[in-house]
Design brief:
Layout: E1 2-3, E2 13-14, H1 24-31, E3 36-41, E4 46-49, H2 51-57, H3 61-64, H4 69-72, H5 80-91, E5 95-102, E6 108-118, E7 121-128, H6 130-175, H7 180-208, E8 216-218, H8 220-235, E9 239-244, E10 252-254, H9 256-273, E11 278-289, E12 303-312, H10 341-351, E13 355-361, E14 365-373
Parallel strand pairs: 9-11
Antiparallel strand pairs: 1-2, 3-4, 3-7, 5-6, 6-7, 8-10, 11-12, 12-14, 13-14
Bound molecules: adenosine-5'-triphosphate and magnesium ion (MG).
Length: about 400
């Protein structure tokens, strides 16, 4: 015997609420579903529950039917899910929500709830997504570990480049202790490189703690200027540098540590390509990428970009290798190279929404042109939308 749904206090007995709605054949079909179906009246009294709901709630049908949710689950009226259900009931709106449910024994299940108004109250469809949620959490964690591994590899790689500069600077200073100017110059470059290294490890720590990198409006010219003191140490005596910066350069949105990674990797590669000397050129320009211009990185949306070009007069890159050089661990430098440099540059540029253009001629040299989208400033939100759901 069950109590029929009705106003609070008013109870009339019916043969079985379980078949108030439909012939038993249909009820059997509903009981065979994996999805839970429950009908609640305006007082949040259970009018109908299928077998899956009984499994989900670990309560018998006779414990639920005719009783309110508060009676069945004391304290439920304090929960966010109940407030949500009440809002759907009052506003007569269709809504969906994920609900985590803790059983008296402490075990937890996650349900996807779909709430739909009906003439006598609401119908709630519940799908048990505990297993899917566990798997997707596991996957997210694995992806984070994978990303952390890659980032750690990248940071270690760039850190090593900086250590090389620091060590060679320290050795040079030790040899020339008598010349104050040289020692001062070397010390400046050691300090500069050590600061960049500490900024880099800061990025790794920020990632492992789940914080975002420091992305802010940035003038690439400033990064190039700060990089100049260590540039000559990277290049050595045989390679000359030329720097040509656009005076009215637009800002981009990036973490300056990422621009350092681009400059460091591309200049180290350029030096490696100019064994017997040459010229390295760093250039910045404002450019507009449009449909008609050829040669710009494929798939880059039209618009305004800052271009940072690093050009050498080195060996050039054979056509058949050009598609592979951005792959992680691809190197032609045998035991000297890890093959991580360009893949780091590629990732950093991708994350910034930019693109890379590669121009190279065997025996003449190579130019990497990095396109970074211009910072449009903070998006302006109309006042009416602020605070909206
Ligand atoms: N400026 C360049 N001129 C000629 N070849 C280049 C140039 N830049 C990159 N390459 C080629 O691309 C390959 C991959 O470069 P990448 O920076 O990813 O790794 P790597 O320089 O070999 O190793 P690492 O960066 O660890 O020292 C290089 O081995 C080289 O063959
Ligand atoms: Mg490299």
């Amino acid at each position: 015997m069950f109590r029929r749904a009705g106003k609070k206090g008013e109870t009339s007995e019916v043969e079985s609420t379980h078949n108030v709605f439909a012939p038993s054949g249909l009820l059997e079909v509903l009981d065979a579903l994996r999805e839970g179906i429950q009908v609640l009246d305006f007082d949040f009294r259970y009018v109908y529950v299928n077998a899956a709901v009984i499994g989900h709630g670990k309560r018998g049908r006779e414990e639920l039917i005719g009783r309110t949710m508060e009676e069945c689950y004391p304290g439920i009226e304090q929960t966010e899910t109940f407030a949500f259900l009440r809002a759907c009931m009052l506003e007569r709106k269709i809504a969906a929500r994920r609900n985590e449910f803790t059983y008296p024994d402490g075990s937890r299940s996650v349900f996807e709830l779909r709430i739909q108004p009906c003439p006598i109250g609401v119908v709630v469809l519940s799908i048990d997504v505990t297993e899917e949620t566990r798997l997707s959490n596991q996957l997210a964690q694995a992806q984070k570990m994978d990303a952390l591994g890659r980032l750690a590899g990248g940071v270690a790689h760039d850190f090593n480049n900086l250590l090389t500069i620091i060590l060679s600077g320290a050795e040079l200073a030790r040899e020339r202790l008598d010349d104050k100017e040289i020692v001062r110059g070397e010390l400046e470059s050691i300090i500069e490189s050590a600061q960049k290294a500490s900024h880099l490890t800061g990025q790794l720590l920020a990632f492992s703690r789940g914080r975002d990198p420091k992305i802010e409006p940035l003038n690439i010219n400033l990064c190039v200027q700060q990089f100049e003191p260590i540039l000559q140490r990277i290049l050595g005596r045989a390679v000359k540098s030329e720097i040509d910066l656009a005076s009215d350069l637009a800002l981009v949105r990036m973490d300056s540590a990422n621009v350092d990674q681009i400059l460091l990797n591309l200049t180290v590669n350029a030096r490696d390509a100019m064994d017997s000397g040459g010229i390295l050129r760093i250039e910045t320009r404002n450019v507009f990428v449009s449909e008609v211009e050829d040669g710009r990185p494929a798939a880059l949306p039209f618009g305004h970009y800052v271009m940072l070009a690093i050009t050498d007069t080195g060996s050039g890159i054979p056509t058949e290798l050009r598609a592979r050089i951005f792959e992680p661990f691809f190197t032609t430098k045998a035991d000297r190279g890890t093959g991580l440099g360009l893949s780091i540059v590629f990732n950093v540029v991708q994350r910034a929404g930019g693109g890379i253009e590669l121009l190279s001629e065997i025996g003449k040299g190579t130019s990497f042109r990095i396109y970074l989208p211009v910072d449009r400033g903070p998006a302006v939100q109309p006042a009416a939308e602020l605070g909206g759901a």
